[in-house]
Amino acid sequence: MPTNLPPLTRIAGALGVPEQRLRTLVLEHTAPTPDTTLVALTVEEAARRLGVGRTTMYALIASGEISSVLIGRLRRVPAEALVTYLADRAPAAVQTAAHAA
Q1: How far apart are CA 87 and CA 15, in angstroms?
Q2: Which of 21 and 95 is assigned the larger pLDDT?
Q3: What is residue 96's predicted lDDT score, i.e. its pLDDT?
Q4: Cα–Cα distance, 40 to 67 (Å, whole number)
Q5: Vertex 49 angle, CA 47 and 55, to 5°
Q6: Beta carbons of 44 and 54 less than 8 angstroms apart
Q7: Phi, psi (degrees; rounded to nearest 5) at 35
Q8: Quick one: what percent of the chain has pLDDT higher than 90?
Q9: Which of 20, 41, 67, 72 has CB 3.0 to 4.6 Å from 45, enough for a Cys bridge?
Q10: How far, in Å, CA of 60 to CA of 66, rounded?
Q11: Interatomic CA distance for residues 84 and 38, integer angstroms
């Protein structure tokens, strides 16, 4: 097999599988899996998951837009609260996009 071929093509040829199938398998195997084991997140973890800053996350919690709980002296955000927050905003985002068009 020629050595000037892309590495994935050479590997696919050596394994005797179509390159597209190998590409699909690699993507499936290396794709990040969401961590569904966490029930409650720190404020910083919740902010990272939403892609906002810590201060913004605290403001969302203070306004009641995102629910949180106190566990002892620790503030935690239920993972489900982020899903709810985003779901509540999805119709508004679609409406805003429709008005912009």
Answers
A1: 44
A2: 21
A3: 58
A4: 11
A5: 10
A6: yes
A7: -85, 100
A8: 48
A9: 41
A10: 6
A11: 16
